[in-house]
From TrEMBL:
Name of the protein in its database record: Polar amino acid ABC transporter permease
InterPro entries according to UniProt: AA_ABC_transptr_permease_3TM, ArtM/GltK/GlnP/TcyL/YhdX-like, MetI-like, MetI-like_sf
Chief location of this protein within or outside the cell: membrane
Organism: Thalassospira profundimaris
Lineage: Bacteria, Pseudomonadati, Pseudomonadota, Alphaproteobacteria, Rhodospirillales
Topology class, membrane: Multi-pass membrane protein
């Protein structure tokens, strides 16, 4: 017998999907802001002249980049309580996304920093600027401009990776889709709509980051 499509079976559950989209958006926003911020600090530490700090950050980066995000999430949610650190599903998901994006952002931003001409840094040093001033006024903005497309793509990837957080019952979009499918058994329709929602969210997020990048760097150029 031919399969009978019934997308109408999803309509009674639109509120669950909307709540999932909202939670996914919140996780993506927290992950993007805190993760990129952590990446900038990590990149600064990696390029610093303090070997111990640079090596410690390097260990963190390699540890996160060479282990599955799901394992990192499980470690935070199930492992940390053994040390007395108990987090809610949302807190664990947000922390895992920040830590994961922070590691990848560190290497992306570091590549941008290394692309800054040495002459600009030497000129700043000749003006008696300290390391913090050089990083803030000379290095970071041009570095971010060079790697903004790659950084934006990584933010989108981490947002899509939030679907894994359904494994700890964080009620994001994939969790909502699984719950709805478990009630109406319309797997094709549920996951088709969910795929479309993720696609729309990815396109919107990429455009938002593009507009923000243009505003940030163009405004600086005209200042």
């Amino acid at each position: 017998m031919a399969y009978q499509f019934d997308f109408g079976a999803i309509l009674p559950h639109w509120k669950l999907l909307l709540d999932g989209v909202v939670l996914t958006t919140e996780l993506a926003a927290i992950g993007a802001v805190a993760g990129v911020g952590l990446g900038i600090l990590g990149a600064w530490a990696r390029t610093a002249r303090t070997p111990v700090i640079s090596q410690l950050v390097g260990v963190y980066v390699e540890l996160i980049r060479n282990t599955p995000f799901l394992v990192q999430l499980f470690f935070i949610f199930f492992g940390l309580p053994a040390l007395g650190i108990k987090l809610s599903e949302f807190q664990a998901a947000a922390l895992a996304m920040v830590v994961n994006l922070g590691a990848y952002s560190t290497e992306i931003v570091r590549a941008g920093i290394q692309a800054i001409p040495a002459g600009q840094i030497e000129a700043a040093q000749s003006l008696a600027m300290n390391r913090v001033q050089i990083f803030r006024y000379i290095i970071i903005r041009p570095a971010l401009k060079k790697i903004w497309p790659a950084l934006s793509s990584q933010v989108v990837i981490v947002m899509l990776g939030s679907s894994v957080c359904s494994q700890i019952a964080a009620e994001e979009l994939t969790f909502a889709a699984n719950y709805i499918q478990g009630m109406n058994f319309r797997a094709f329709e549920v996951y088709f709509v969910t795929t479309g929602l993720y696609l729309v969210m990815s396109i919107l997020l990429r455009q938002i980051l593009k507009v923000f990048g243009n505003f940030l760097f163009e405004r600086r150029n005209h200042a």
